[in-house]
Design a protein that fits this description.
single chain; 690 residues; alpha/beta; Rossmann fold; Immunoglobulin-like; 8-stranded mixed beta sheet; 13 helices
Length: 690
Amino acid sequence: MLSIGFSPLVPAYALWALGAVVVLLSVLALLSRGPVAVLRAVALGLVLLALANPALVQEDREKVKDIVAVVMDRSTSQTLGDRPAMTDRVKAELERRFGSLADVEPRFIEADDGNGDDGTRLFTALSNGLADVPPDRLAGVIFVTDGVVHDIPSSVEGLGFKAPLHALITGRPDERDRQIKLLEAPRFGIVGKDQTIRAQIMERGGTGQALVTVRRDGQVLTRQQVPADTPFSLDVRIEHGGTNVVELEVEGLPDELTQANNRAVVPIEGIREKLRVLLVSGEPHAGERTWRNLLKSDANVDLVHFTILRPPEKQDGTPINELSLIAFPTRELFQQKIKEFDLIIFDRYANQSILPSSYFENIVRYVREGGAILVAAGPEFASYGSLAQTRLAPIIPGQPNGSIVEQPYKAHITETGDRHPVTRDLPGSEQSPPAWGEWLRIIGSQVQSGDTLMSGANDLPLLVLRREEKGRVALLLSDHAWLWARGYQDGGPHLDLLRRLAHWLMKEPALEEEALRASAQGRTIRIERQTMAETADPVTLTAPSGQESSIPLTESRPGLFTAQVESRELGLHTLRSGDLVAFVSIGPANPRELMDVFSNTEALGPIAEATGGSVRRVAMAGDQGITVPRILAVHSGTRLSGGDWIGIRPSDSALVRGVSVFPMALGFVGLVLLIGSTLAAWVIEGRRRS
């Protein structure tokens, strides 16, 4: 390729200034001297040309292939239905079509979900994939996508190239889907009270009615029919403190695009207004203050404490109007207001005919309906006045055998206790014998039901927990926990033990024996399965797309099995293990990718048409096959697409292998021309004077 190039010997502005002067002088010379001044103008022009330093430039060029970028949309919305298979088939067909184009190099670019909740960002992926390609070498761009794109430029100038853009849309126009949308979802709720959730069923190609199932912590609360596209409300009772997971699931449609958006989860943090505890102490003893101090130290506990100082059999003739002690309000506490308490503690309480049998029946009913009782036993438990001899006997997990062992011993955590959250990892239990002080008394008892978490002297049961229908019962068979509180023999973890025990009785979720929990850090999901069993079954993980996988667990500590898994999808993941369910969100709970799942040709239409490209579907309704248009090179004209073809615009890009430069104004030739023109002007003007 031959061309003329200039390498001025002076700055460009000086060259232009000299040019203006030459033109001006030439015009003046022509006006004053006539045609003879043409030679002077030629001489000045040659000087100016010499300063411009022209040269013949010969380039040795090699034609290079044009680049056609093919962006493959691999975002979450592209995993729905048969879109993945459709996308792979389109890619394979494009590879075959490009194989017949000798001067075209296809560059396939994979585009995943954007960071965070950015959605599908095909233009960003295109820009990154073509960072090393000059814009004039790009002959065309092809998107293989469902049309749900979230970074479309507002104008064609924002593209950074002039090549045609074509979009091949996966999915079908007759897609149908149903989803549930939360309108109002409370974050917090008072335990024991209802919270209202407002939602709406949205559908395309549906029936106008949908069956909604409501679950709380995996248990079905209700099923009801609701109209589609109309808001509805649900009242859900907050049962316990901590996270109450409320799940709303709408029945799917036949051949629905995806069921990943058929479920909405509302985690409601249960808050207790006050944990109301009734502490009933029998005869005063050294450990009574321990229970009181423990419960009063918790600002969230509303404690009602009574000590029986004057039992009915104590008759000393003192007139009633002279007694400073108040009567024990048995009827008010154990009949009228018993359901207002979250926990009742009997601390060394003996049956002294203060509570009639009907009140013990009320207590049993209270427990079975969801209440909790802790019996902290002393010597009275082995006597005739034992609570085990009352109508509480059916719910007390152990029966006294009449023995009272008074000897120093260190409490030990049993094998069952090693697995239970109440006693697992108690400070000091990691050593053998445990690094805590001794107790001096234990009440002999025969455990009939429940779990023995701690044992004492002669391997007698020390701490027994039991579930009674909806309620819970604990039996502590020693009144010497106060020795740890007083620092006897360096004391022990009395606060950890007694606080965990009280919170387990009041159904603290973190202390459940059977629990499934999940948390996320980045795209890593950490799974915890608490169980009293020796082994734990794999957990079923359901991704937002509906894909299920089985996750095996490894025992990290007794009773605690864990696993970690990486997730490729954004959105809400569901974990199930038997009746237990847990939820964890990777990124936002409702990602942009699943808010609009229908494929469309409208979003990319304006930007594609502005480049001369086109947008078309590769499959129509009811068509099981795909149609990929032919690819043609269009060298001239403005039409770059047709009924069964799409066009690319070839460029003249080439690699320069070598350059030869031949100066035209310097050297001997330039000098001869300059001298010749000057002599000619001198001779002609000399003749005119003579």
